[in-house]
UniProtKB/TrEMBL annotation:
The lineage of its organism: Bacteria, Bacillati, Actinomycetota, Actinomycetes, Kitasatosporales. Residues 19-193 form the LnmK N-terminal domain. InterPro entries: HotDog_dom_sf, LnmK-like_bifun_acyl/decarbox, LnmK_N_HDF. This is LnmK N-terminal domain-containing protein. It comes from Streptomyces pristinaespiralis (strain ATCC 25486 / DSM 40338 / CBS 914.69 / JCM 4507 / KCC S-0507 / NBRC 13074 / NRRL 2958 / 5647). Pfam families: LnmK_N_HDF. SUPFAM superfamilies: Thioesterase/thiol ester dehydrase-isomerase (SSF54637). NCBIfam families: LnmK_bifunc. It comes from the Bacteria.
Amino acid sequence: MSPTDLIDKPAPADTSLLTRRVTVAPGMCGAGSLFFGQLGDWTWEAVKAATGTNVYAARSADGHPTYLSFYYFRVRGSRHIQPYGIAFGDEFDVTSRVFDLGPQSVMTLHRLSRPGTPATGLDPRAFHEEQREDCLYVENYNRWISRSHPDSNEGLVEASPAGHRHEHLPPLPAEHSPRGICGRARKAGTFHPGGIPGRTASAPYTTTYTLDRVRDLNGAGLMYFASYFAIVDTALLRQWRALGRDPRGFSRRTVVDHRIGYFGNADADAELTLTVRLWHSDTVAGDEIADVAVTEAATGRLLAVCSIQQLLEDS
């Protein structure tokens, strides 16, 4: 059975809404990027089903390959369900809804709930204002892009697929659009340019990472979106060790909010610089926000910014 066979066929009245029952397999969970990669696959499947565009083989009007790239990825959880607590054998009902953001972009929301959880609507209000403690929420903002140079991952340009249908999708309310959030983060190099009220920042920690052509590229030769999660975690673990913390505790942290803005791509073997600043809560012990910037070492070009709210084991 192919992944798309798992999707219940949407009713003709609302092609933007899809549901499926999922059993988590070993390749869908664990440390690093596996679970986030699975979430991304569900986004591609949802967009394909909702728009009719074959996202796996899309081409622009001039015949060049175009890719549904991830520009903003956010996962919100709780102590009851969080992305690093998913184990194989877990079962979830996955509800997905796709929203119109014009010909060049698309927004997809997912909600993961345990079987038997009462069904509720899925819209931006549910994600931002009515989050349930027993559900995991995912927000994906994707943009259609193409290479401007065939042998380089730099200088990617917007390129919508020929015949892409989007006008029938529900519009995303302006107050819930991530465009402003991403624009400010790209300009400032952080999701928190003015600091974080009620939190005190640590001294920055810096490390480097060489982009691995074996592990970090996708089938199109681009830096794989889920690799960013693993690369950021590599930097956080190095900082964790530098702070003298027990490495076993890193695997037991609870991540309740994880977001990445993707602002650039890089070629294999590029050296990356990752700068991490921890923001500690002034009132809740063990409540930290890791603020991470990923740049290309040779050029200083910003590739990504990340913000992770994590609760330590003893908090």
